[in-house]
Write a structure and sequence with these properties.
The protein is an alpha+beta fold. It has helices at about 35-45, 55-75, 140-145, 160-175, 185-190, 200-205, 215-225, and strands at about 5-10, 20-30, 75, 85-95, 100-105, 110.
Length: about 240
């Protein structure tokens, strides 16, 4: 996808014969010093932090939203939005002095309809959007419900929005969705369409004096900031 170079070359066998050359493809990807958002969240949690600084959480949320805008404009469902699939670099800043954040891991991404997607994506063998694919804690109920033998309805781009909401919960609580629950319990909740429970940690953010959450006019500005689209959404992929 964007920001990645694909390099193909002919590789000769050990005997040097030109009759048995093999086309080898390699994908060169930029290295992110900071690693995944998941690792960063786990580090903060181990250090006793209760939540991300709200301003930083807003920057991360904005950039992932911009990445989804780009993907969805091409009718592509990511299907695995979670902190493990977000790369973050707090040391190397963008021109606007914000951290570098990118969405990655497109191995189960799929075009919504193969006839309408407009970008190159290797989707041969990837299950179509009527199969249960992804990580259950971040999975939308309609994705999980496709496991039912009598369920034949396809899901759409909206399943990424559910997963995005679960990612926001991670940012604000430093906890994975459905924290404390085992897989069977999570599956039962998904089957009935129930979202992760909101925790008391969200109240802590409000009462801790975070300036970004004080006053209705500031809240409105934050919402505008979050949903504002970048002029180059592909920067976040």
């Amino acid at each position: 996808m964007y920001g990645h170079q694909i390099f193909s070359k002919w590789v000769s066998p050990v005997d040097g014969s030109k009759d048995h050359r093999v086309l080898q493809s390699a994908i060169w990807m930029e290295y992110f010093e900071g690693g995944s958002l998941k690792n960063y969240i786990e580090k903060l949690s181990k250090n006793g932090e209760k939540h991300l600084q709200v301003e930083l959480a807003m920057f991360i949320a904005r950039d992932i939203a911009c990445a989804l805008v780009e993907l969805h404009s091409k009718h592509i469902i990511h299907r695995d939005i979670k902190s493990e699939n977000v790369l973050i670099d707090l040391e190397n800043k963008r021109s606007d002095d914000t951290p570098v954040v990118k969405l990655c891991d497109f191995d189960i991404a799929v075009p919504l309809r193969s006839l309408t997607h407009t970008c190159c994506i290797a989707h041969h063998g990837v299950p179509p959007p009527r199969h249960c694919v992804g990580t259950s804690r971040w999975m939308a109920p309609e994705v999980f419900q496709t496991m039912h033998p009598h369920h034949h309805k396809e899901y759409g781009l909206e399943v990424d929005i559910w997963s995005y909401g679960c990612l926001l919960l991670e940012l604000l609580t430093l906890e994975i969705p459905y924290a404390g629950l085992c897989d069977p319990d999570i599956h039962e909740l998904l089957q009935s369409g129930q979202r992760p429970a909101l925790t008391d940690k969200l109240d802590v953010i409000v009462t801790s004096g975070e300036p970004a959450l004080v006053g209705p006019e500031v809240e409105t500005d934050n919402l505008r900031f979050l949903v504002g689209r970048s002029s180059n959404s592909s920067t976040y992929l």
